[in-house]
Design goal:
six-stranded mixed β-sheet, elongated, alpha/beta, 18 helices, about 55% helix, binds coenzyme A, three-stranded mixed β-sheet, 2-enoyl-CoA Hydratase, Chain A, domain 1
Length: about 400
Amino acid sequence: MSSNRRLVSVLPKLSQASRMRARPFHSVISVRDLSFQSGSLESKFHDMKGKVSSLKTDPGNEVKLKMYALFKQSTEGDNSAPKPSALNFVAKAKWDAWNNLKSLSKDDAMSEYIKIVQELVSTEEPTSDSETKDSESLSGSKYETVLYEVKNGCCKITLNRPQKYNAINLKCYDEIGIALEEAAKDDNVVVAALTGSGTYYSAGNDLSGFSQLAQEHGGDMQKGAQAAGNILEKFVSSFINFLKPLIGLINGPAVGISVTTLGLFDIVLASSNATFQTPFPSLGQTPEGCSSYTFAKLMGHNKATEMLLYEKKLSAVEAYDRNLVTEVIDQSSFERVIEERLNFYASLPSNSLVYSKGLMRDRKRDKLMTVNREECDRLVERWTSEECISAIMKFMSRKQSKM
Ligand code: COA
């Protein structure tokens, strides 16, 4: 496949960028030393470079990486820089992306760069984003990655990144915590439920978050990992400390942290097409969400081991058999049945529910907080390990290698 075809295939992804909420965009590209002579391609390239810094929509790491590589190829030609260490995740990803363009001419690289920026500029119309409008109309623009809705005493929090299979990014961790706090404080809320939009419940932790955090900490992996550990600990604590009944509505496949936190819910209703998987060892990682404690309690040590160490993927019925799920509902009637269940749960006296949950949960709370801290400490170590870094790089570059 020619380099050109390889590059053009990044373009369809850009329409997805326009679906994201507007936020300040600072490219990973540090653009310096632009010293082009006049010439139509070069002056267009120069123009486009100026437009990058005024973009408000973040096109995602994959596109930013491609733009970085094209920029370097346009201005410096083939990569002759020394290869960074594998532990320097961000620098290594950038080096690889640039290196993949070897032998692409500077003119072709410029043309591709221009095309990408033009498309980003033309799709930057956040007000036409239906996903954003829905979110704003339901929650007064407070949330970007979740929908927050209160109806008949039930607060429904919907993970709303369907194009990323509701992978939980840094913003989303934050917003789920804020949404739970809002539900806890609102006297109109009797129960809270968490679900996903689109086909997935959630694909788990957004694996691009690591590089984002490392970048925010000047490329320091250790500091980035520590920040990720704090975010995760806070996120899981918001489930542990949620005093009203918490219902999981598992509308489709669930991966990673969207599975491990289920032991902190009070009722889990799963659609018959839901699946449950925790592929931690393959990612060089270890369990979170208190699952290293709750899973053995729910299903016994050996079956918990089968999931957390050996990555067994469960069907909805298998998850029910292991007490991870309270009830399996046929996919065709899932929406109707959960509505009925939620209306019933929310019709019961609120204080009675809170006290009953407290009696069942309170004596375990300190234990759960300790487990949460220990799991996060281990993950901070894992996230800087070579095992984990190469697994994440493999995931991030899997599509590039298919181009
Ligand atoms: N982090 C970041 N992005 C993710 C993601 C994750 N955990 N899971 C899915 N996505 C994104 C993909 O990058 C893709 O976005 P793109 O089209 O912009 O590239 C989109 O969601 C759809 O995923 P894709 O891989 O194209 O779909 P698939 O049907 O081939 O595979 C999965 C679906 C869930 C099996 C696959 O995406 C996957 O393995 N994800 C990682 C899940 C995981 O390991 N989570 C636990 C992390 S601890």
